[in-house]
Amino acid sequence: MEIQQAIDHVGFGRFQRRLFLVCGVTWAADAAEIFLISFALPGFRDEFGLSATEAGLVVTATFAGMLAGAWVWGAVADRVGRRLGFQLTIAIFAFAGLASAFAPDAVWLAVLRALTGFGLGGALPLDFSLFAEYLPTRNRGRWLVLLESFWAVGTVIAAVLGLLLVPTLGWRWLLATSAVAALLVLWVRLRVPESARYLLTRGRQDEARRLLDRIATENGTRLPPGELTVPEGSGRTGLGQLLRGGLRRTTLTLWALWLLIAFSYYGIFVWLPDIFAERYGYDLLNSYRYVFYLALIQLPGYFSAAWLVDRWGRKPVLATYLAASAVATLLWSLVAGVGPILATAGLMSFFTLGAWAALYAYTPEVYPTQLRAGGMGIASGFARIGGTVAPLLGGVLLSISLVAALSVFAVAFAGAALVALVFAGETRGRPLSDTLTQLSALAPGRTRNPRK
């Protein structure tokens, strides 16, 4: 019995719902941690007497740490397993995030935010790799998109906390609150098992079978008798395979997509409170309210993408939502008045987060289990490059004009849409591959029924 057949027999039940919530809460905490620094930015900028460029460097430190974390932890998880990385990344993220609330100056704040990012950068690709490896083929894309929707939940939580805490208790309490939540997530993560797919690619058939039997019991189902088949080509492989053979085009396409969408997304969202307060002249309270609205409108963006990816496909959703993000961002740069600004910025938020969701569903599906965490980690690392550059360049562009900044970000969205349209493949209906041998045997665009 192949592992995909076994997982399809186990079905989607109590175990997957529990794992969905564990990964989802972590995902929300991750999103909140990233955006809390943008809500804290006006506070620590005033306290430490920083210029816009210096404040941008503090924000950039988080993304630099995320870049290192994504590239390190993905490779580690492909070698030592998902479970250990799953726990260590959130531990680093939680403790460094808590310490950053007590930073005595801007230098220490930047260092601690970099450490926070190092843990956070590894947590993101590991969540999706582990969850994808336990999903049945049917509706896999929908559940991966719904997991990504917790990002919007975290963004909304960050906006609410910023609205409540910054005007009353200050930015330090804001950072501490998120870190305490991450410590609770760490406690929950200790109960998450290893990936059965990972165990099988290491030749540990009996462990994988026992684990799946236990999950089947939890789901109220039963696996048929028989041993799990160790997939051909099992064993360790190097990350150099990402740029060889048929994977080269896939990998380069993903790197470009993650870089471009993150550049625009973080370039806009990190500076949102500042845009509303400094560029439009709204007071801080109203600025946070408008950011809360833009975070809230992300949720229907996710849900629409979740409905479409298993009906329309990953590629058309990704390309269409990115193109719509470009148009909405450009329109935002041209309008005036609260209503038109919120309408165009809201459309940008809606489509951008839907595009993110489709990309997070697509990426773990194109790599085999041997390379899934590492491949997704490196791809998400390119997002951190975009997130590192964007706050700095955003500060420079905003000093010129809001139109200049938004126009550059719109062009990046359009470039990502073109890359998706021309170079991305389609993974709808395809079973996950476990080895490079399996992946190469599956012709591009071909689907296979795992039950046959």
Automatic annotation (TrEMBL):
Residues annotated as transmembrane: 20-44, 56-77, 84-102, 108-131, 143-165, 171-190, 252-271, 291-309, 316-335, 341-362, 374-394, 400-424
Cross-referenced CDD domains: MFS_SV2_like (cd17316)
Name recorded for this polypeptide: Putative MFS transporter
InterPro entries reported for this sequence: MFS_dom, MFS_sugar_transport-like, MFS_trans_sf, Sugar_transporter_CS
Protein topology in the membrane: Multi-pass membrane protein
Keywords per UniProt: Membrane, Transmembrane, Transmembrane helix, Transport
Main location: membrane
Keyword rRNA-binding: no
One term under GO cellular component: plasma membrane
Molecular-function annotations in GO: transmembrane transporter activity
Positions of the Major facilitator superfamily (MFS) profile domain: 19-428
Subcellular location: Cell membrane
